[in-house]
Write a structure and sequence with these properties.
Chain lengths: 267, 301, 324
């Protein structure tokens, strides 16, 4: 902090920042009151209040079915992407490869390539394999999208970790694998969990690939929501959105608080 | 007892040398194996399909090689229009993101731990929130009778509600909302590594805070800014959902056109050709930015 | 045993190679009769203390120390007993349940040591074990490690760049320079009979004057030197002068003593001795450390005064090399 510049002199900076944050956070917030709206319309604030959209969601086999499909696909993605990402991060961090940079680029590529291209490419591939509209196909695609997130998160976690400890463990008699699981993993736990969380969200939220690779009986939540937003907006979306906001906001907040508590614990 | 230099005999160097080298290579290979699932996945789901698409963009309905898909893009005005709209909008969105995101990142880098944590959450939580949810929220907010228009009319700034959604304006607002974190995060990371002593030295030498910022801080933050900028622009080019929903059918980006081409045409040709062109632009921008960055880094020494 | 050398001499690399973390391009390493150069680190039965101790922060002190025993599937009861025993050895009884971040630097070092010896490895390796400690603690730990080593009888190889530490802690010292082993000897021998200029300069204080060896006779200028060891081969050489070996005496010096005439440049009183800087007749600058009792009659020499110093024949050591 530049101590020779006072807070007052920077009021415009703080103001602009505040507005930007307000702009970023606000939209998500209004969804929650919308979900309690008593009417069909998109008017805000809602003229009447009720739980009917939550009811509509929890009693609709269509919505629930789609949610179940999304949950299954997302959980499988987490289980697949997290080990792949952690292993790749470890290998890249400790290995000396001639093409190390290229390997990293290939693993991150899925972030840079426009999703629509991945979608039609995957559609073509799975059409050949007769696997269109199957959950495994979705899981594989979502894993492709999720691995870069795990890789980046865990690599960042490795930067702050003292790998000497693995060496010590090995000198004491642990093989590389044992040393990793007993010494390294417990200490980079936070990064791995964050990576897993990102994987879940990436998979759960994925719209474009799902729109090409799934539908009908195997529709995902995003399929239904996307269709609804494009055609006739079903206000149940508001209820679903609120639930999704809670799902994506609460765990990180809890994680943040846990981390703060740990730092504050007297040692 | 004293010993001269060297503890090993010449023949033993040859004896174990090959074996040790083999050990070293084996260990390196084992580490490479750890990366292989990821590499295989990327190969089969990314490289291979895109290679196929590239191939198909040169094949016509009859199965023979052709340039017709590309020439269609070049000749038909509609396609050119779509490219222009996509690029212009992406540039505009990126510019707005920089105007909003740079001060935000700067503020973050100057704040104390506690405050920066809170503000960071304000950036990250929308980042994690589902794209569909956020798009839906904007749909609600920007309606004719939505809260934004209501506020504008009531405060007397405008006489009648503005068409803020189902058009390009809504699309831009939605895209900015989604892309600001993508700009802020790499920018903030690079700003954090700027040593505060540079600015203090500048002040000591007589530079006002404004001058110090323009002449010292801004150039130092440029690599991070370029990285964030490029990322934002590239992601904007490939946008699909937001223009589809907030554009209300009036806005067509390249990605949307690709999707309709898949359903519209009997072959993969048209869609693939569009995809290849989009990918080519994306790669070109990435490569150019990397060159720029490395040149800049060399200048910084 | 200590590996001693300046930074970049390769001592840590050598240690890491013995431990198995650096792979040599060729050669052999055996511990006892076992060839270990191709064994991975966890199979070499070596205990190692790293420079930053690298204690596992997510485990308690007791769990840290018990880690190698758990890896070897030792019975729980025996683990507890051996951990207690080893804690006693390093004078940290009862610290078993403490967390790592509650320990001071010296305590952490002792825990690292305990962890490295609890499974009774054949060799103990220590990488600059005392560099992170302050001076007082360091001197105390030097003696403690020595005592522990004598008690356990375990072969220990330590790495250090501090020659005083090496001389205090070890039975034998290996001096390394730029990846080569220069001399491997007891501390006394290294001090008294260094094999070349590097070793002489690295251990203890020294001054050098150029001499010439001609047909087996060493000459300083045209003065013949009295020496007891075999001189180096003909050609230029260096005479090593340890400051404390130079004698200043009012009584005439014997025939077995070399005489050097010079002019005092500077005299610094240092408590129990005076450090003199002298320009010899040949124009070379040397340093002499004269204990107070040798000065009693004449007082501290004044700058500019003439002086005559003696060097006993058995203290006149020649090393090959020229004065560059």
């Amino acid at each position: 902090m530049e101590s020779h510049i006072t807070h007052w002199q920077r009021w415009w900076l703080y103001g602009l920042t505040g507005l930007t944050i307000f702009f970023l956070v606000l939209p998500s917030l209004i969804v929650i009151p919308m979900s309690f709206s008593g009417t069909n319309s998109l008017a805000f604030p809602p003229p009447a209040w009720s739980f009917r959209w939550y009811e509509s969601f929890f009693t609709s086999s269509q919505w629930l079915g789609a949610t179940w499909v999304s949950l299954q696909v997302s959980l499988c993605t987490v289980l697949l992407a997290t080990p792949i990402g952690v292993a790749a991060a470890y290998g890249l961090h400790l290995g000396r490869f001639v093409f190390g940079q290229a390997i990293y680029a290939v693993l991150i590529a899925a972030l840079m390539v426009p999703v629509i291209l991945i979608a039609i490419g995957a559609f073509f591939l799975f059409a050949q394999l007769g696997m269109v509209n199957t959950k495994p196909a979705l899981v594989l695609c979502d894993t492709l999208l999720a691995v870069p997130f795990v890789l980046v998160t865990v690599s960042a976690g490795f930067k702050g970790y003292d790998f000497n400890q693995e060496q010590v463990a090995r000198s004491l008699g642990a093989s590389r694998l044992k040393a990793f699981f007993s010494v390294t993993l417990p200490q980079i736990r936070a990064s791995v969990i964050a990576g897993a969380f990102f994987s879940f969200i990436v998979a759960f939220d994925e719209v474009v690939i799902a729109s090409l690779l799934s539908g009908g009986d195997g529709a995902t939540l995003t399929n239904l929501m996307f269709a609804s937003l494009r055609n006739e907006i079903d206000p149940t979306i508001a209820a679903i959105s609120s639930l999704m906001i809670v799902l994506t906001t609460v765990p990180p907040l809890i994680g943040h608080i846990v981390m703060l508590r740990r730092k504050r614990r007297p040692s | 007892m004293t010993m001269a230099a060297g503890l090993w005999h010449k023949d033993q160097v040859l004896l174990n040398g090959a074996a040790l080298e083999a050990d070293r290579r084996r260990e390196n290979r084992q580490l490479l194996m750890l990366c292989s699932p990821g590499i295989l996945l990327a190969f089969f789901l990314l490289c291979l399909p895109i290679g196929w698409l590239f191939w198909f963009s040169f094949i016509d309905a009859g199965g023979s090689p052709t340039f017709e898909h590309y020439s269609r893009i070049w000749n038909e005005g509609a396609y050119i229009q779509i490219f222009i709209v996509t690029f212009e909008t992406s540039a505009l969105v990126t510019a707005i993101c920089v105007l909003l995101g740079y001060p935000l990142a700067y503020c973050l880098s100057q704040m104390s731990q506690k405050w920066s944590g809170i503000v960071m959450l304000g950036v990250l939580v929308p980042f994690w929130t589902s794209l569909l949810v956020r798009t839906y929220a904007w749909l609600v907010l920007l309606q004719r009778r939505g809260i934004v228009n209501t506020l504008l009319v009531d405060s007397g700034l405008v006489h009648q509600p503005l068409p803020l959604v189902n058009n390009l304006t809504g699309t831009i607002i939605g895209m900015v909302h989604i892309m600001v974190p993508f700009l802020v995060l790499p920018l903030y990371a690079s700003m954090r590594s700027i040593d505060g002593t540079y600015l203090r030295a500048a002040a000591n030498l007589g530079a006002s805070p404004v001058k110090a910022f323009w002449q010292i801080y801004l150039p130092l933050s440029l690599p991070g800014l370029i990285a964030g900028l490029v990322l934002t622009f590239i992601l904007c080019l490939g946008f699909y959902i937001t223009p589809a929903i907030l554009g209300g059918g009036r806005v067509q980006f390249i990605a949307q056109r690709i999707e309709t081409s898949v359903h519209l045409f009997p072959t993969w040709g048209p869609a693939s050709a569009l995809g290849v062109v989009l990918l080519a632009f994306t790669l070109a921008i990435l490569v150019l930015s990397q060159l720029l960055l490395s040149r800049w880094r060399r200048r910084l020494g | 045993m200590t590996l001693l050398g300046p930074s970049g001499s390769g001592k840590t690399t050598l240690l890491m190679t013995i431990a198995g973390f650096a792979r040599p391009s060729g050669g052999s390493i055996s511990i006892g009769d076992t060839e270990v150069v191709r064994l991975p680190p966890h199979k070499r039965e070596i205990g190692m203390v790293f420079q930053n101790y690298a204690l596992f922060p997510h485990m308690s002190v007791g769990d840290n120390i018990g880690y190698p025993l758990r890896l070897r599937k030792t019975a729980k009861g025996e683990i507890a007993a051996r951990v207690e025993h080893v804690l006693e050895l390093v004078q940290l009884e009862g610290y078993g349940s403490r967390r790592v971040d509650q320990l001071s630097g010296g305590q952490r070092q002792r825990v690292a040591l305990a962890r490295a010896i609890v499974f009774e490895p054949r060799i103990l390796l220590m990488d600059e074990p005392l560099s992170a400690l302050d001076k007082q603690l360091r001197e105390r730990m030097q003696i403690e490690i020595r005592r522990l080593h004598d008690r356990l009888g375990m072969t220990t190889i330590a790495v250090t760049h501090d020659q005083r530490e090496a001389l205090t802690m070890s039975d034998r010292v290996a001096v390394l320079e730029r990846g080569r082993l220069i001399q491997f000897d007891t501390p006394r021998q290294l001090y008294e009979r260094p094999i070349n200029r590097f070793v002489a300069e690295f251990i203890g204080e020294s001054s050098f004057v150029p001499v010439t060896v001609d047909r087996g006779t060493a000459l300083y200028g045209d003065m013949k030197l009295q020496i007891t060891e075999t001189p180096p081969p003909d050609g230029p050489a260096l005479l090593l002068l340890r400051p404390e070996k130079l004698i200043l005496s009012s009584r005439p010096l014997g025939r077995e003593v070399n005489r050097f005439d010079g002019v005092v440049e500077d005299a610094v009183f240092q408590g129990e001795s005076v450090l003199l800087t002298i320009i010899l007749a040949g124009g070379h600058e040397i340093q002499a450390r004269i204990p107070n009792r040798q000065l009693d009659c004449r007082g501290i020499p004044v700058a500019g005064s003439a002086i005559e110093l003696g060097l006993a024949a058995e203290d006149a050591l020649l090393v090959p090399g020229d004065a560059s």
